[in-house]
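Write out this protein's structure.
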Amino acid sequence: MFTTILFRMILWELCKVFLISLLGITGILLMAGIIAEASQQGLGPAQILAAIPLLVPSTLPYTIPATTLFAACVVYGRLSADNEILAIKSSGVNVLHVVKPGLILGFVMSCVTLGLYYHIIPYTHHLLRDMVFRDAEGLIYSLLSRNGRISNPQLPYSMFVKGVRGKKLLNPVIKRRNAKGQIDMVAHAREADLRVDSSNKLLLIRMRHCVVISDEGDRGYTEDRPFDVPLERIENNNRRARDMTWVELVEKRESLAEEMNAVSDEIAARSAELLLGNHPADLPKHLQNLKEKHRSLAHQDRLIYVEMLMRPALSFGCLCFIFVGCPIGIMFSRGDYLGAFITCFLPIVIVYYPLILAGTNMAKEGRLNEPLLVFAADLVILLGGLVLFRWLLKN
């Protein structure tokens, strides 16, 4: 009975500190980081408020492990600082019974984080992109009003304005890039307005009193000149791996495997044709292109595979953190929040996240064994936690 009451008490304290810390850290991260950046990028208050519920799930895989570790250090640090751990040991209760609530919290939070990665986080990414695209006209006006320009090397156009008056762009300048990234056309006008054609995914710009200059120096003047700018929108087939649900990742890998097999078969057939000697003159070049395509498909497959490894690696960081947080909290006997914060977060910032970043990047480049590289950070923290647990049992 004593163990049951003790278990419930510790679990309740862990949950209470965890929830309070999670709300605080998530709120700080949203307000000080994401929302501030969104404001600087030209998003209005209404757009930011609509985006907050869609941004919260993306922050949880980082805030949940951190707050799990923080809760463990605070609760077990308090128990140790108040000599309750010593009293529990003196009563004949094994210290492992004390840390069971923490292990349960870490396991549950790992499963919750993994569940978020399964569907909710990629789905909210999709909703966020759709929300921005639906209000693309207001966003573009807001960006031009705040920054006076829209310029990105990945976009085929750059736009600069002197000012924005209502729905009018004052002294707009449009620069168009060709496939090589070089500017091949510049148009400037006295004023312009724009609207978004959602069905055709076009930004329609109507420029008045417009002068157009080509890359060869030719100039032309027109009273009313329309420009159709394709809106860059990530389609389902070209989405990044981090924006796909687990089911979509599996399906994408299957389709890539089929495509790689087809390319491999064609490479084998063309290689045999090349060996026979009687072949078209462009066959070596075609064969080289096929090999480049196969390498590109293999790289895409590796990125998806690493993403599928990274999600459980980050998720089960919660459980690994508990293995470190419980003994560290008991060892240092920190009864104050600040001491627990410094004690638990310094090793994680110095060791865990750099290992995650380095291992993930090396895995994407195809170095060594991908699962070992991605899970290396978890293994290091887990081994460190087991060493600390051994010390805890001895002392």
